Amino acid sequence: MRHTVSALVENKPGVLVRIAGLFARRGFNIESLAVGQTEKPSISRMTIVVDVADRPLEQVSKQLNKLINVLKVSDLKASEAVERELSLFKVSAKPETRAEVIEIVDIFRAKIVDASRDELIIEATGTEDKIAAIENMLAPYGIREMSRTGKIALARGGKKTE
Amino acid sequence: MKMTGAKALVKSLEKEGVKHIFGYPGGRLISVHHELHESKKIQHLLMRHEQVAAHAADAYARATGKVGVCMATSGPGATNLVTGIANAYMDSIPMVAITAQVGSMDIGTDAFQEADITGITLPIVKHSYLVKDATEIPRIVKEAFFIASTGRPGPVLIDLPSDMSMSQIEYDENAEMNLPGYKPTFKGHARQVKTAAKMILASLQPVIYAGGGVILSNAASELTNLAHITRIPVTVTLMGKGAIPETDELSLGMLGMHGTAYANHAISNSDLIIAIGARFDDRVTGKLSTFAPNAKIIHIDVDPAEIGKNVKVDVPIVGDAKQVLTELNKQLAEDMAKVKPLPWAAWHDQIVAWKKKHPLAYKSNGDLLPQYVIEQIYEATKNLDAVITTGVGQHQMWAAQFVKTLKPRTFISSGGLGTMGFGVPSALGAQVGRPDAVVFDIDGDGSFQMVSQDMATAAAYDLPVNICILNNQWLGMVRQWQELFWDKRYAYTDLTPGMPDFMKLAEAYGAEGIRITKPEEVRPAIERAIKSKKPCILEFVILGEQGVFPMVPPGKGLQDMIYDQPEPKKGGAK
């Protein structure tokens, strides 16, 4: 089962490698990982997506909690959190197909952020499903390159993401 | 006050109350040793190998309860500490390891004697620091000692680039810790304690299973009280030896792969296991799926990650063993005043019957047997202030079986990592920490030869350690597995070729050497060693093909124990 783990960590050198190392040592594959500062510059949030069974995940989150630089770890459920990912697609868009590509961009409320004679760079944000859908739609036109941020997430409503 | 980073380090260590450091100099560390040399509060002991320094600091911590400190230079010095750090990590021993590093500007350039020691040790430290600003040294040292010694203890590494130790800084005497993410739980949950007490009083076949956590949190007297209040039998892990005097009628000795038959039977047949400061290691549980099939489990541990890691727990209590046991004992005393006496007579009778049927014993045939030697070491030291340390292998397991540990911190052995070569360094560390104690290292010929160079340290500092080599001329534990499970193909376990003359070795290091070949020579030799103020090497030339029994074969359940010591064999494969 896939889990989104959100960890608040001290914004210090070496923290990322401690966390990544812990996942590796316990035999987990990180599907995506996004790190950035929070509202407090001394604290970063890591959003880690892993595919594991429930019980070992509990073990990993307990082990994560033991790391001195980790402040808080939570397992976010999709229904209780807003999850977003940002992706950039460099798509082939020759004059004869350009209009169709732009139409797809509109449907997905994505954005064109760069244009050249034969290519467009498209910026899309959304859930993983939405990113997968737009990728699927753009594929026939030829995706030259693609870059994804990995998922970031916050708990919904008044609840703090802890 | 202006001073160098090196001096600030030494001052910070003094402030933590450090009395001894086990170390080895090197280029990048000279500035630190330069300052240590002037310290009136700290004695630096020059070992002959960094690995020995780390093990000695580890054993010093085990013997005294204080944080052990070891120190090595950059590169190979640091990597030589690695086994010792891993050993301390596996057994949760409070230790601070200080390594020098190449200058900050040279890090990452493959400079001479550069090793990324914080990277290398990442999975085997509780925490680590790479100093990037020398003014932070006082705070880092303070945090390192706090982290190493609180919660579930463990090793902390401080890597100190040489420009940091040489730069001039303003020493901040009142540096404060900043550890927002570190909050170990000490006090057990009150409701869980109540539930546990209720469950204990409702059980019919309870067993206490005590591990190293009881020793680490100085909870042996609370644990013994728990047993005495309730009359529940106690089995201990290798790390838990000393949690209850093993002469106590409630003591079942050690459980697990080479545990006593009655301890393993008691666990396998129990309906309630009260696990305290123990982690259900595979050497304890055997095959997990058949472990204690009918038992409910109360698990008291300071580390929440241990709860439910290997076995399903019914009542988890996260907290310090000493505090939780104090509360639990209080609760039990209260409850027992109200509840009828427990119907445990049948359970006690059953255990007595197991003890009678499968006692811990060996068959004597006139040969010099290792078990006899260890029994005699125990007999000769039981009324003394004595510390027993061990290497790793057969001798270690015989020591665990036949030394009845009476007090905490008097049986020191490498448990989780099973590090051969731990015997001599641990004897040195224990003797430094407990200068008035009689220290016996029960060692093997293989284990000893991994670290024999450090007899020089014993000689240099007049440490009267007694190194007992049970010489069977084999890597005995591997040989035993080869005999039982690998078609008796004794691949690379025969140590006869190249076997040194240990008496000459003793002489070379200015130690007293005693070779013992007959049972009647054992006791006088031990007595002579105890009286001697010099380091001693006692070589017991024991029967070669003796096995450690009982034994739970690897991958089998505790129920599938091989009970009996086979007839001692004459001659053997050689």
Which terms would index this structure?
heterodimer; A: about 160 residues; alpha+beta; Alpha-Beta Plaits; 5-stranded antiparallel sheet; 4-stranded antiparallel sheet; 9 strands; about 30% helix; B: about 575 residues; alpha/beta; Rossmann fold; 6-stranded parallel sheet; 22 helices; about 15% strand
Short description:
The complex is a heterodimer of chains A (162) and B (574). Chain A has 162 residues and is an alpha+beta fold.
Explain the overall architecture.
- The complex is a heterodimer of chains A (162) and B (574).
- Chain A is of the alpha+beta class and 162 residues long.
- Chain A has two domains: 2-76, Alpha-Beta Plaits, CATH 3.30.70.260; 82-152, ACT-like. Chain A, domain 2 (Alpha-Beta Plaits, 2-Layer Sandwich).
- Chain A is 30% helix and 42% strand.
- In chain A, the strands form two sheets. In chain A, strands 5, 6, 7, 8 and 9 form a five-stranded antiparallel beta sheet that branches. In chain A, strands 2-3-1-4 form a four-stranded antiparallel beta sheet, covered by helices on one side.
- Chain B has a six-stranded parallel beta sheet with strand order 3-2-4-5-7-6, with helices on both faces.
- In chain B, helix 8 (190-201) crosses helix 13 (321-338), helix 10 (220-230) packs parallel to helix 13 (321-338) and helix 15 (370-381) packs parallel to helix 22.
- Chain B is globular, with a radius of gyration of 24 Å.
